Amino acid sequence: MNARAQELAREKKLADRAFLDQKPEGVPLRELPLDDDSDFVAMEQERRQLLEKDPRRNAREIAALEESMNARAQELAREKKLADRAFLDQKPEGVPLRELPLDDDSDFVAMEQERRQLLEKDPRRNAREIAALEESMNARAQELAREKKLADRAFLDQKPEGVPLRELPLDDDSDFVAMEQERRQLLEKDPRRNAKEIAALEESMNARAQELAREKKLADRAFLDQKPEGVPLRELPLDDDSDFVAMEQERRQLLEKDPRRNAKEIAALEESMNARAQELAREKKLADRAFLDQKPEGVPLRELPLDDDSDFVAMEQERRQLLEKDPRRNARRLLRLRRA
């Protein structure tokens, strides 16, 4: 008889709560600890009393209570979801979990529901399936985090210095990460009021991405002769040379796919890239030496061993440095070198 009375009491509560959202935040109402929540219980008791006294006269108060009870159920549902998702990486790819659209992702929601059902039935017997689901849910959260980062970084130059943005170690760079977090916080608080600060941060983030791209290019080009024909590699217009850029892109793709399997093709490309760098260095030297008499004593300049002459090389290097620093301020010294 006691058991039956309890059944009838449960049925009545279900009927009394029919006005509530049956799946607040996607969580079945029956899974929420409504009976253990003092705020909810107090409102429910007050509603019951108002209904008993005069439902018509108390209609406004009842409606207000029902709205508050639904709001409280949603709060409890959010708390439950947070607790249920405690096993997830709370910052996948560095993105706070709360910022991911997990509840709008059909794949994630389906796995979460399946996990919930397995836990309800028998957590021990279903331990393997639950563990597999948790691994898949973490993987999906990481995918969503990557997608969010791509969307959040859409304002960035997607190819700084010609390097695809995805190849830069942005997530490992403390300066970039700090700026990105600050930008995210400003957007959350008030994007209009913080518009200037956000714009300044975006400019700084683009600048940092360009720095990282330059560093990556230097690292990627470490195999090249750093002074082809005696000319510092940084002075060559490699990024403006379509032949060199095409080879560099092909080499990058081969390295991404399978560096071992593509070893021969990569080695051949590196040889060709070095050869092209030497060609560009020769062209630069010719351009840099255009001020020289092209036929001193009737001998073509190209036939002279200028690169093997220590005195000439020293003066040429000094001239290059003076031009890099300040050609106007160094004009007199440059003129003396020209006559030497």
From TrEMBL:
Taxonomy, superkingdom: Eukaryota
Xref: Pfam families: DUF7623
DUF7623 domain residues: 20-84, 88-152, 156-220, 224-288, 292-338
InterPro entries: DUF7623
Name of the featured protein: Putative calpain cysteine peptidase
